[in-house]
Design goal:
Blueprint lengths: L9 H10 L3 H9 L2 H9 L6 H8 L5 H20 L9 H9 L6 H27 L1
Helix pairs in contact: 1-7, 4-5, 5-6, 5-7, 6-7
């Protein structure tokens, strides 16, 4: 799979998602191709975001945060596996910025770091696929 989006603006995406109370990701994950890309990178079918979002409502979005933190940790492991220099996203980083940094810029910083790691992983996978092909 060739990844087309290797320069996603994480802070802007995080700001948009924060302003829309998570509704932005309900559309962005499936229609922006992000959910499929995560499945490909992590080599497994991840839980759909809409399910994590719905389960987050009665838990004050704690479930959604845990879901995102788990994906962040798996993405960090993939970046390490590919030999990509840090800093990377992580479970600790995601939870820390989204709780302690809330309601200021914490969620946007966490999303920025997440997409920075994702962009670098996708660019490296593209480079390896091009070299192998």
């Amino acid at each position: 799979m060739r990844f087309r989006h290797t320069n996603r603006p994480g802070f802007l995406i995080g700001l948009t998602d924060f302003i829309t109370a998570g509704f932005f990701f309900l559309f962005y994950m499936p229609h922006g191709g992000l959910q499929d890309e995560l499945d490909e990178i992590l080599q497994k079918k991840t839980q759909r975001y809409w399910k994590a979002y719905l389960l987050g409502i009665p838990t004050l979005f704690i479930y959604t945060l845990i879901w995102m933190a788990q994906i962040a940790e798996e993405l960090k492991a993939k970046a390490g596996e590919l030999g990509i220099e840090g800093p990377h996203t992580s479970r600790r980083h995601m939870v820390g910025w989204c709780t302690i940094g809330f309601p200021f810029f914490g969620p946007m910083i966490a999303t920025h770091r997440f997409f920075r790691t994702l962009n670098r992983v996708e660019a490296e996978l593209n480079r390896r696929n091009t070299a192998a092909g």
